[in-house]
Design a protein that fits this description.
Blueprint: H1 22-37, H2 52-58, H3 67-70, H4 80-109
């Protein structure tokens, strides 16, 4: 796999030929990172003419091929019941552990 890149926001991989020069691989990785993370609406940004998504749509892509479009995040917060379950579970676990510790301590004193 190799060393991580010295640039970019994420770790990702692309498949290239084994005999491809490392300079070409690094150039591809750099520009993929720039085009994947830039905002095409920022006129002073690195890619005011578009990014991977807009270039792909220009070639006939719909955008629905992306994982976050096909499988959007459904919940943005934890429900009250989930919080209640976590709190009650933690309290029950603490009581059980303290009871076991207390019984062990009493047994040692006898």
């Amino acid at each position: 796999i190799g060393e991580p890149m010295s640039f970019g926001l994420s770790h990702y991989a692309i498949g290239v030929r084994q005999d491809m020069p490392m300079e070409v691989v690094q150039t591809l990785s750099y520009w993929m990172n720039v085009l994947m993370s830039c905002n095409p609406l920022d006129p002073l940004g690195p890619c005011p003419d578009g990014n991977f998504a807009s270039f792909y749509q220009g070639r006939g892509g719909t955008g629905s091929e992306c994982g976050y479009v096909l499988h959007p995040v459904t919940a943005t917060s934890i429900s009250g019941w989930a919080i209640l379950g976590i709190v009650l579970g933690s309290v029950v676990l603490a009581v059980v552990l303290l009871t076991m510790w207390h019984r062990n301590r009493i047994k040692r004193q006898e």
